[in-house]
Each structure stands twice: as C-alpha cells, then as structure tokens.
C-alpha cells in the first residue's frame, strides 16, 4: 500500500510571503497590459512594507534568530532582488509607450537649471539633515541618503510630500527620479562634497495598546511612532562600515539588513502607471446595475432577497440603499458597522444626512482598523457633529459588515463580506446580501442592541465570534465521508481547529476544495487548494457544504483565523434565498475551474501558475 505524504504545516508569515510572491509574479503575465503588470510591482512593494511593519510582528518579537525566521528573511530578500531586476526590465518596455525615466546626465543644460531651482525652492527647505546620533529615531518608510568624508557624518531625509518621480517639462511621458537629482546636486543639501547612498527603515506599526476607546486613540497613534525597527535597506554600494554602524544603532541582526540595487522603495512606479496611456491599462468594465432595486429597494426586498457580487454588479447599489433609507420619511432608524471608510464615502454621507433629517442613526465605527485609525477619528468627529451616535468600542474589535434599517413595521438589512468603501467596491470581489427576511433582520437588530448596551452579541441563526467556528466544524464533520464535499473561499485559513477538521474529513474521503487567496497554513495531500490572483483582489469569504445534495451556503466578514473567531465580532450568515444560493455556488464552481488566474498550492509547499487556459473566472 502506498504511503500518503505527511501534511505540511507552515507559518502564517511564510504563507503570506508566498502570496506576495504570487503578486510579484503577476508582473510577468503575458495576458496583462504593461501598465497593469507594472501596477503589481507597486502592490508588491507596498505589501512587503506591510509585511515588515505589521505581519512579521509576532515572528520578530518571538522568533528572531530561529531557522524559521531566517527562512522568512531569505524569501523576502529573494523577492526584493527579483523586484529590482523586474523594475530594470520594465524601463525598456515603457519606451515604446513614450515613457522614460532619465538620469540627470541625459537632461539638457536648461532642464538641469530648472531642476536645480526646483530643488532649491521646493525640496531643500523641506529636507531634514540628521546627525549620526539621531540614527535610532529614523522614520519608518522614509527615504534617506547617507553621506560623509570617511566617517558617516550626515543623513538627508527626503520630504515625503515631494513625488519620487518628477515630470520633465516639455518632454511628455519623461521623468527623472528625485533621488537622482539630489545626488546630482548634493551641493544644495551638504556643506561639503560627498557621495550620497540610499537607505530606509521599516518599523513595527502596532498600537502599543490594543484596547483603546475614542478618547485614547490620538495618544495611542502617537505612541505607534515609537515602534521597533524590524528592517533596514541600503543600496548595494553603501559603505560597509556605515551600514554596520547603522545596524548596531538600530539593534538589528546582520540578516535583517538588505543590500539592494537602487532605487529603493519601488512604490513610486504608481506614478508611471497613472501617467501612462489608457490603452496599456485594463479596459473599463461597466458593472451591471440592479436598476429596479436602486429605484425602490423596499419593494424589491419585500418580494425576495437580492445578492450582488461586486465589482461585476455595481457597489453603488449599497450606497443607493443607504441613501434611500436617509431620504425616505418612513425610515425611522439606521444602524451600521463601519471599518475602513476612506476619505470619501457615500454610505457615511447618507448616514450623516439621515441624522440631520432627525432619524435615529447609530454606528459602530471601528477606531482600531489598522492604518485607518486616523481617518476613522476624522469620521467620528463628522458623525458626532451631525447627530450620529458613535457607539462606544467594545473590548473586541468589530469587523462585521452590516447595515440595518427600520421602516415602519418592517426591517431591512445589508450583510456583506467587504468594507463599506466605494474604492474597494470597484477593486475587490465581495458579496452583498440585501434582505427583509425577519429571521435575519431580527438578529441583525439584536446584534446592534447588544453592542449599544455593551453586551456580547449572541445571535443564533447568524453567527459571531467562536460560534462561527462551531457552525463550520459541525458542517465539516457532517461531510466527513466518501460522498462529502466542502468548498471554502477565504483570504486566510489558519485556524488550527478548523484545519484539523478539514484534514479529518479529507482523510475520510470528502472532497475538500480550498480557494485561499493569501495564507493557508496546512497543505494536505488530499486537499485541492488554489489561490486566485488577477485583475481584482479576491476578498469574499464563503463556505459551502454539499449536505447530501442540499447545499448549505454561508458568507460573511470573517477569515478563518483565531483572531477573527476569538478576538473580533464578525458576522457569518446563511444564504437562505434559493436563487442567491445558486448564484454563490455558480461563483465557487467557476473559480474551481479557473485556469487563467490560478496558482495550484501543492502539499510540499510549491505552487504552480495556471495562466494560459480558457476559463477565466474573473470575466463573469
């Protein structure tokens, strides 16, 4: 009898870096326009910064020096080397589009005089000069230049308000790097002639206190600036003795310092993407509009539920639902959970309008949404001024996506898998369920009442907290036989208890299909695991179980991670409407057939790209 290979368990950090490699590999897709491939280089760069500022936190604080930690750094360095080479390969590809990044020695005398004046007038006054004793206080993600005569004498911090790429006047599509100009005219920044060398650091960005309320948030955000340095990048020609001095001042190990070919920090390529010709970006894809629903959501939902899949179906239907509630004189009360709103937000504006019209409006605005805390603080001030009640923050972070409306004797609800954010709604794939089903709307109302009373919500039909795990475990165990079938689609699947149940079901003969975008920490020989990376960011969270031929389908806000199930208030809801259920199953089965945006995840930790097939699940 042939022995089955053992399952492979990998860390969340390693799984996430594998995902970021999948993002980086999109730069080589033959079916993507050049500017879209370049966009993925910018996404990769931003992701790697996030890795060293947030996702590596546990490993950095608990496992530094271990074999696993060293492997993370080796993989990150391998990706960074690939990305630098990728940038250089893109430059000649851009030339046929009329786009160039020129060094200063390719500029005319008149252009050099212009940029000299620009540096003197716009850049030098905003540039910080830092002495070596200030090394420990370097800012996260800023770009610095080091200089000196023999010894390291000065650090120059480039102002983050100045773009890293500057257009050359009179040469449409041509740019020069700010850093190269500063090198060329270092006399404007230093009192002595010296070479300049690029460097940057990344600091851990977690709040010092995970439990903060609105009054404490500003102070907590200030404290975040003091996070430990987790990563240092220096350009490849950086003087070794300077790099060593900086490393020691920052308390880093040698392997935490990356030597890379300049330019460092490739996020600036987004300027090239934005400036390039439209024909080299994805053609606009107008979303389907549920016109009848937008015109009168109440009549539509009185007849049946509506399920939408964004961005293929217009996210603005969510905003239209909120505005319909704000403008309808029969609507008395509105409740919403809000997580990442962005600077402009139609749902938030509708809630403000409703409150100004005298309606009872209350929101759970999650102040602790990582990296969005300041924007949410901005929205809390606007809400309070308009009369929207901002509910006190519970001990657990609220990541649920719910909007509830009371209109006369009926209640209506929207439940989703993504944030109430129009930009995300155009770039992320997410599910929206609109319903007037009393079984659902009563539980959503009870969820908000519990939050307002500062009690732990405990709905029964809809699940939150550990009850999500319990419901999924029961469903998985019910499929643990030769005719069982399980389909899970999540961004992250790392919960040990759920993974163990999936492992047992697969070994008992069930078909286990996993569509996991980012982190999957158990790779089993009997799992059928894949990751989709394409034009849109796959973001919906869905679970489906064959249930003896009568499929049950769940969707919601939660990824299957211990933090989401144990330390957050999420909402996971059953899709009860038969047509809505069929829609979700068609979506899942289409993604299981995809051979254009797919990476197969093998049980030995390897992955294989499927790009040249005929079934593109992102072209619904």
From TrEMBL:
**In the UniProt record, does the keyword Transferase occur?**
yes
The record, for Pfam families, names:
PP_kinase, PP_kinase_C, PP_kinase_C_1, PP_kinase_N
Q: Name one GO cellular component term.
A: polyphosphate kinase complex
Using the record's annotation, list all stretches that form the Polyphosphate kinase C-terminal domain: 299-454, 471-612
Q: What is this protein called?
A: ATP-polyphosphate phosphotransferase
Under which EC number(s) is this enzyme classified? 2.7.4.1
Biological source species: Allomeiothermus silvanus (strain ATCC 700542 / DSM 9946 / NBRC 106475 / NCIMB 13440 / VI-R2)
| UniProt KW keywords | ATP-binding, Kinase, Nucleotide-binding, Phosphoprotein, Transferase
Origin superkingdom: Bacteria
- Gene Ontology molecular function: any one: ATP binding
Question: What InterPro entries is this protein classified in?
Answer: PP_kinase (IPR003414), PP_kinase_C_1 (IPR041108), PP_kinase_middle (IPR024953), PP_kinase_middle_dom_sf (IPR036830), PPK_C_dom2 (IPR025200), PPK_N_dom (IPR025198), PPK_N_dom_sf (IPR036832)
């Amino acid at each position: 009898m042939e022995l089955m290979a053992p399952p492979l368990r990998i860390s969340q950090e390693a799984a996430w870096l594998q995902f970021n490699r999948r993002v980086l590999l999109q730069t080589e897709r033959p079916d993507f326009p050049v500017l879209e491939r370049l966009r993925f280089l910018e996404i990769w760069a931003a992701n790697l910064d996030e890795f060293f500022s947030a996702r590596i936190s546990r490993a950095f604080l608990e496992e530094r020096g271990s074999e696993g930690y060293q492997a993370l750094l080796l993989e990150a360095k391998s990706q960074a080397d690939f990305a630098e080479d990728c940038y250089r390969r893109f430059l000649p590809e851009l030339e046929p589009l009329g786009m160039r990044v020129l060094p200063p020695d390719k500029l005319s005398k008149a252009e050099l005089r212009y940029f000299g004046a620009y540096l003197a007038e716009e850049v030098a006054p905003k540039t910080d000069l830092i002495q070596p004793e200030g090394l420990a206080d370097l800012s996260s993600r800023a770009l610095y230049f080091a200089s000196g005569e023999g010894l390291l004498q000065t650090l120059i911090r480039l102002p983050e308000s100045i773009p890293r790429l500057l257009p050359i006047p009179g040469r449409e599509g041509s740019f020069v790097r700010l850093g190269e100009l500063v090198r060329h005219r270092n006399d404007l920044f230093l009192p002595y002639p010296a070479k300049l060398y690029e460097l940057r650091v990344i600091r851990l960005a977690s709040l010092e206190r995970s439990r903060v309320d609105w009054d404490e948030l500003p102070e907590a955000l200030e404290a975040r600036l003091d996070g430990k340095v987790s990563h240092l990048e220096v350009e490849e020609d950086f003087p070794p003795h300077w790099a060593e001095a900086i490393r020691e001042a920052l308390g880093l190990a040698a392997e935490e310092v990356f030597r890379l070919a300049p330019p460092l920090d490739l996020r600036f390529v987004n300027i090239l993407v934005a400036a390039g010709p439209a024909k080299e970006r994805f053609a606009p894809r107008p979303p389907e509009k549920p016109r009848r629903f937008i015109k009168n959501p109440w009549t539509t939902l009185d007849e049946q539920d509506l399920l939408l899949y964004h961005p293929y179906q217009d996210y603005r239907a969510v905003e239209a639902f909120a505005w319909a509630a704000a403008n309808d004189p029969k609507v008395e009360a509105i409740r919403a959970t809000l997580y990442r709103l962005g600077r402009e937000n139609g749902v938030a504006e509708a809630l403000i309008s409703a409150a100004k019209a005298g309606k009872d409006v209350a929101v759970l605005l999650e102040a602790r949404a990582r990296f969005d805390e300041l924007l949410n603080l901005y929205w809390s001030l606007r809400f309070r001024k308009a009369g929207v009640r901002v509910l006190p923050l519970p001990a657990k972070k609220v990541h649920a996506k719910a909007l509830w409306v009371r209109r006369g004797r009926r209640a209506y609800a929207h439940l989703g898998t993504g944030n109430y954010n129009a930009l995300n709604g155009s770039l992320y794939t997410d599910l929206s369920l609109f319903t007037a089903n009393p079984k659902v709307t009563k539980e959503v109302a009870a969820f908000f009442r519990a939050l307002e009373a500062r009690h732990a919500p405990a709905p029964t039909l809809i699940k939150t907290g550990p009850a999500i795990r319990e419901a999924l475990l029961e469903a998985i165990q019910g499929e643990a036989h030769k005719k069982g079938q399980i389909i899970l689609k999540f961004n992250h699947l790392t919960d040990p208890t759920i993974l163990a149940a999936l492992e047992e079901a697969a070994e008992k003969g069930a078909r286990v299909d996993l569509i996991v975008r980012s982190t999957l920490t158990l790779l089993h020989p009997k799992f059928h695991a894949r990751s989709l990376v394409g034009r849109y960011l796959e973001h919906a969270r869905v679970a489906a179980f064959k249930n003896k031929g009568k499929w049950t389908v769940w969707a919601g806000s939660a990824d299957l991670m211990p933090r989401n199930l144990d330390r957050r208030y999420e909402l996971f809801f059953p899709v009860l409407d038969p047509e809505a259920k069929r829609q979700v199953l068609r979506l899942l089965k289409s993604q299981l057939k995809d051979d254009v945006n797919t990476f197969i995840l093998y049980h030995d930790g390897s992955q294989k790209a499927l790009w040249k097939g005929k079934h593109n699940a992102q072209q619904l």
